[in-house]
Amino acid sequence: MTSERDFDRLARAWLELGPEEAPDRVVAAVLQATETTPQVRRPIRWPLLKDFQMTRLPVLATVVATLVVVVGGLLLINRPNGGVGGPTASPSPSTVPSSASPAAAPLSVALRPSRWMGSERPVPGILPKAGTIINFTVNNQFFITQSAANENHYLNSVASSVGDGQFRLETTGTGGGPCSTGDIGRYSWSVAPSGRILTIVAGNDDCPTRLGAVPGTWWLEACKNPDNYCLGDVDAGTYKSQFFTPRLDAGAGAAWVPDFGGLTYWVPDGWANSADFPERFGLTPTADYALEGQGGPETFHEIGLHWQLAANAQNSGCTSEELTSVPRTVDGLVDWIRGLPSLEVHALNEIRIHGLYGRRLDVSVAPSWTTSCPGETQPVVVFLTEAGDAGETFALVGRARARLVFLDLGGGDIVTISVYSSDPARFDSLVAEAMPIIESFQFE
User: Fold this and answer.
1) Which of 42, 255, 324, 326 could serve as 51's disulfide partner, Cβ 3.0–4.6 Å?
2) Could you write out the DSSP letters of every residue in 244-306?
3) Domains located in the chain, CATH noted
């Protein structure tokens, strides 16, 4: 990563400007920007993208948001989430005094505590194209948030069980937004046998806004990565992304904004949504996802989607170095990869996915290639990077194999889909499972 993208250097540079305090309006604006920009801390590792703890969108807002005025001075705080790619953490809500009926019972354990992802909902304060999340807390509170703005709670209510498969919401104090204190709503609910899909059916509600926001289908958020609100294991079916923005070209200075459903995808049984960031989206077989974070050797066996990749120079430091001489087009990237002595290329074909033109090819490290990277013992081929000065690269390591699909979204936007396995013996079976999923992809 370049020094300009290094968090400590940026923070130090900001501090050296010498301000002793920040105006209230600046602090408020920066905090709002931070709350609505996906944040994530990702581990440093070699698979598809070489992940760093700090990316962008926007770097300046992220740096300044960590500077808090304390007793007339500035204290640098390293927030628990440090870059682009996931939502801000949701703090534990304070207890709201309840005036619920004495007969009301605690919520079912199937509902609390839990977070459920949903589509756009018409709630004042939530952006029209943003996804939403409903939250049932351990102390029987309910609220809705906008994806990537989890510190802002809307429609705050006390939730209680009022019979088998029914719950009650009551607005009891501040934070109810368009709902008034004492507004009561009743809803029916059911959860799929897997526990991953919640269906809520409207009964009646004194608050029309809540009545329009709560009913519908919601998907359990059970991501193993605590800094990302991916879904985790999912039932067979069709889903939408929360954060992935394949048409965004951050290298050209574009800023991320919420856009629920940038990707629509289908999966059969036995798959998990393992990552959902603006720049990257992951789908992993359930058996492999179960091993994530277990402390064993790091392996990769997954489908990945990546925004706006470009050709990368194969330098000795294995750093990001975009080759702007290579056209950032489907044909330009494929033809360049075919000419690299570091890679073996097979199974080259054209492909169309819902009318979008693309090309696919299988790649592996050439047997004659022995060059590695600092800190690595196996041969490594770094050949793609995020466009611009992002500093994140795509690499093949050792005997790993990958299928790459470059897809033209139109308007100069290219999405790269990878099927990557660090175990070459399992690659063909992964491709066979992955291609029907890939062929389901639709991009907004």
Assistant:
1) 42
2) --TT--GGGT------TTSEEEEE-SSEEEEEE-SSEEEEEEHHHHTTTTSSS----EEEEEE
3) 60-220 (no CATH), 232-443 (3.40.1000.10)
